[in-house]
Amino acid sequence: MSLDAWSSTARKLGFRWVVAMGGGIFLLLFGAFWGLVGITIAISAEQDPDARAGMFCALGGGLLPFLAGSILVGYALRTRRDLARLRELAAFARACGPAELNRDGVSQAVSLSPLEAEHLILEAAAHGILVDDAPLASLVEGASAESPAPSTEATLAVGAVLRGTWRIEGLLGAGGMGYVYDVTHLRTGRRYALKTLIPDTRLAPEALRRFEREARAATALGHPGLVAVHDFDRVGSLDFIVMDRLDGEPLDARLRRVGSFDWHNAVVVGVQIADALGAAHEAGLLHRDLKPGNIFLARDAREARGERAVLLDFGLAKSTDDAATSRITATGAAVGTPLYMSPEQARGEPIDPRSDVYGLAATLYEMITGAPPFLEPTVARAYHRLLSEPALAASVLAPRPVPPVLDALLAAALAKDPGARPASAASFRDALGALLAESRAAG
Known about the structure:
Layout: H1 6-44, H2 49-96, H3 103-110, H4 114-126, H5 136-140, E1 161-162, E2 166-174, E3 179-185, E4 191-197, H6 205-221, E5 229-235, E6 238-244, E7 248-250, H7 251-258, H8 263-282, E8 295-299, E9 307-311, H9 343-346, H10 353-369, H11 379-388, H12 394-397, H13 404-413, H14 425-441
Antiparallel strand pairs: 1-2, 2-3, 3-4, 4-6, 5-6, 7-8, 8-9
Helix pairs in contact: 1-2, 2-11, 3-4, 8-10, 8-14, 13-14
């Protein structure tokens, strides 16, 4: 699927509605003026034949422009409505991809009847906004443009040995990108986590190459907040990576269990992840996909809280056309939404470390409030709010008190303009750390 034509279509339709609205208003005012002139002549000179002729001319000369203006205003309003609907469709397509781009999915996302959704898809195709590998008819009729079925090698049997080195001991978990197994290194006997990457059209070869390059670079940093990657290989069509095996639970699982953290514990996690990000950014690496599902709370007796936060999947973020996946929806179903994406990433613009700062702030916001900054029942509404509205202050939604200083820090890190955010993950870490120190000093 391609959204390359969206910007040109938006400019074209935006120009049309502005010109039509301006011309329509001018003609309405022009017609109303001459209509008033005609009425005034009629009232002041009822018996004068010449005056009556002028009255008819004025009324006629005013009526036609007035009707034309009404038509233009109606056309402008319809064009603006179409532009808004196409914008919502583009946001939905960007977030969910072709698998959900069918009449029923669009109908639910854009709040239209199935027939109106069908017309909207056809209109988008006519503008060249949606160019999909699947036939348009299958989209209109509700058939999914499904991704290729996972390789049979994606699920591995206990006891299987990969590359003569890694023996599968059991399944640890599963996610949208693949499966995570408990494995043993046959020569050393050490236990590791092996993550398979299911073949998927969204995971392009260049993304895999980037992941291998950046995962190895992140491992070389030796930071305790970055999970170490020990191997990267392929068996048939199945790509896999071997990482440190961590004991604990992912942050998203913890949030499902407890709902939210008090601000102090949330900031401790935020400081640890910001420190890991700062080290990676100094090495020229971006994460691109900060969210609770990519943070692991690992048991660590050396930490005061008995655990440390570790950043997972470095460099394995999907294309910027894909959004993070929510753990919460209005219907209870997982829907792709821009819950943790920076506005510039959602628009497909170039990103820098401040985009990761935004993702961390959105994750910290959810840890404190129990919900991401822009939680909405539809993808289109979430995108609209992400791109146009500031997030509510965390203290408004949090079930526990939040210091005003933390409110201000989160508001700055969630700013629409990257220039208004903390300049780096390190500066965000320092600001959060200063808040913790002040709280501890106050007793």
